[in-house]
Automatic annotation (TrEMBL):
Coiled-coil features, chain-numbered ranges: none
A GO MF term: dioxygenase activity
Keyword Oxidoreductase: yes
Chain's gene name: LOC106128510
GO biological process: demethylation
Keyword match Oxidoreductase: yes
Protein name in UniProt: Alpha-ketoglutarate-dependent dioxygenase alkB homolog 4
Keyword terms, alphabetized: Dioxygenase, Oxidoreductase
Top-level taxon in the UniProt lineage: Eukaryota
InterPro entries named among the record's database cross-references: AlkB-like_sf (IPR037151), ALKBH4 (IPR032857)
Cofactor: Fe(2+)
Length: 326
């Protein structure tokens, strides 16, 4: 299926292709019952009844009966306003590629084929030097102290294009336990809905082949990894939750998704929750088979070596019309 001129394909649409390329009837219709909404509070780590995301700001004076929602870590003010300004300035000096559903992207990482489960380094040479301070700062968070970035992706959400991202789980064959995102320019919302599909989707069954590093309480013990249960088993919700969880993506914050929320819930960003330009930087790590002593450690080590390099974007992109190698 060929993409439309705006970059969208199939049921993934934006305001441009809906207006100019006849895609209005193709767009995915999400039927979400807002009465089932719970807003996650990053200060008490519980989800409280409601839909509007500003409800978390009522902390500690929440109302209603909360539910536990494990597998989310949020640190507000991960970067400063001046750091954000310089970061966005540098990001915009790198060419953007059009993506689906009204987004633009800059992708730095190996070439992956999720259907065939094949990975090659391709033209991957590491990451822009201007973003190194973010990865260095990961070490200040216990949950990320051993985190080795393999893919870094800048994503732009523009409300004038109706930008969004459909419900999904990040691939489980190659991308590991912790999904990390740094949020810039505006607040938004990550909407979580429980996944009830087959484990072949998203290569989710692969998570049954390895064990979690992050414990259920969010702690990490690299000396002890519980091998009594696999990733999917230990992260499975204790009971079926009939709820929609709304996670605040706070400007200049960092969010880490792991465990139950990573493997048993789909996440999306609704068009209605993009009210001004948002840029995020998303990070992914390898699954255990691509780490030292893993079945595919040779290709994993080659890519990891490249992932420890940083380069000057001004030298690489002297001509802003140049296309990024991905």
């Amino acid at each position: 299926m060929k993409p439309r001129p705006c970059g969208c394909k199939g049921c993934r649409t934006c305001l441009i292709c809906e207006k100019f390329y006849g895609a209005e009837n193709l767009k995915l219709s999400l039927k979400l019952d807002k009465n089932k909404g719970y807003v996650y509070c990053p200060f008490c780590n519980k989800a409280w009844p409601g839909w509007e995301i500003d409800a978390y700001k009522q902390h500690p004076n929440h109302s209603g009966k909360p539910i536990n929602y494990p597998g989310i870590y949020i640190k507000p003010d991960f970067i400063t306003a001046s750091e954000e300004e310089e970061l966005i300035k540098c990001i915009d000096q790198v060419p953007w590629d059009i993506s689906q559903s009204g987004r633009r992207k800059q992708n730095f990482g190996p070439k992956t084929n999720f259907k065939k489960k094949k990975i090659v380094p391709g033209n991957f040479e590491g990451f822009p030097e201007f973003s190194k301070f973010l990865q260095d700062r990961f070490k200040s968070i216990d949950l990320l102290r051993d985190y080795q970035v393999i893919e870094q992706c800048s994503l732009e959400y523009d409300p004038s294009k109706g930008a969004s991202i459909d419900p999904h789980i990040d691939d489980c064959w190659i991308w590991g336990e912790r999904i990390v995102t740094v949020n810039c320019l505006s607040d938004s919302v990550l909407t979580m809905t429980i996944f009830k599909g087959e484990t072949k989707k998203y290569n989710l069954y692969c998570a049954d082949e390895y064990y979690p590093v992050v414990q259920q309480d969010g702690s990490i013990d690299l000396e002890f990894i519980d091998k009594d249960k696999t990733m999917l088993e230990i992260c499975k919700p204790n009971e079926e939750i009939d709820a929609i969880i709304r996670i605040p993506l706070i400007r200049r914050s960092i969010i880490v998704m792991y465990g139950e929320s990573r493997y048993h819930w789909e996440h999306c960003i609704l068009r209605e929750d993009i009210t001004s330009r948002r840029v995020c930087i998303a990070y992914r790590e390898f699954t255990p088979p691509y780490l030292t002593n893993g079945l595919h450690h040779e290709i994993g080590n080659e890519i990891t070596t490249r992932a420890k390099k940083f380069w000057d974007h001004r030298s690489k992109y002297k001509n802003k019309d140049e296309v990024i190698d991905t």
